[in-house]
Amino acid sequence: MKLTTRGAATRDRILEGASAEIRRQGVFSVTLDDVLAATSTSKSQLFHYFPGGKEELFLAVARYEADRVLADQQPELGTLTSWEGWQAWREKVVGHYRAQGQDCPLSIAVSQAGRSTPATRAVVAELMEHWQSALAVGVAHMRAAGRTAPDLDPQRAAAALLAAIQGGVLLLMSTGSLAHLEAALDEGIAALRRGAPVTA
Fold it and tell me: Which of 98, 127, 134, 196 could form a disulfide with 66 if both were Cys (CB 3.0 to 4.6 A apart)?
């Protein structure tokens, strides 16, 4: 659907409102009526922009939240060119999840839209691909600068770090504790540094 500037703004307002309601209410509590009330939108208007109803809306929210996961890590995620830069990114990630708490809007939106559908799997896969690629660029920079092991595979190292982060996020959602996420980030960055020269 090609939207006018006004139409795009209305659609974005509905998306942002739905996301805010997910953050406010927590897991599986948000209904379409909640979104309508929060965004001062009529049902006909909502279905104009999201003809698939709740499933389409929450899939769009999942895409919106996936974009936010990466946007909230900038500019640090794009400047992993020193160990100080990696530490700053680590703090940004922890800060993001500290502010978010136990309720992950992306996971909730994906669950609401249907976790096992090809569309939702594609949203998550695209997020992880972009995140891993950004980390791999940072690892490759550190390797080229002689700051880590010369035989380190940037993509594999980035994949391992991302998997550790996701494990930490899952445990945060289960326990409310950031300890596992912080440990995953600290140990992951330490593993990258172990191959660095003594002067690094």
Answer: 127
CA–CA distance, 97 with 116 (Å, rounded to integer): 25
Within a domain: residue 200? no
The b/e string for 182-195 (b: 16+ C-beta within 10 A; e otherwise) is bebbeebbebbeeb
* 152 vs 41: CA distance, rounded Å: 52
Judgement on whether residues 188 and 129 belong to the same structural domain of the protein: yes
Residues 18, 114, single domain; the answer is no
- In this structure, are 189 and 173 located in the same domain? yes
Q: Which domain holds residue 148?
A: 62-193
Q: pLDDT tens track of the chain, all 200 residues? A: 677 888 888 999 999 888 888 777 754 677 888 889 999 899 999 999 999 888 888 888 888 888 888 999 999 999 999 999 999 999 999 998 898 877 666 666 666 665 667 887 888 888 899 999 999 999 999 999 999 999 999 999 999 999 999 899 888 888 989 999 999 999 999 999 987 554 43
- Listed in sequence order, the residues at least 6 apart from 182 whose beta carbon sits closer than 8 Å to its beta carbon are 94, 168
CA distances, 120 to each of 129, 130, 193 (Å): 14, 16, 35
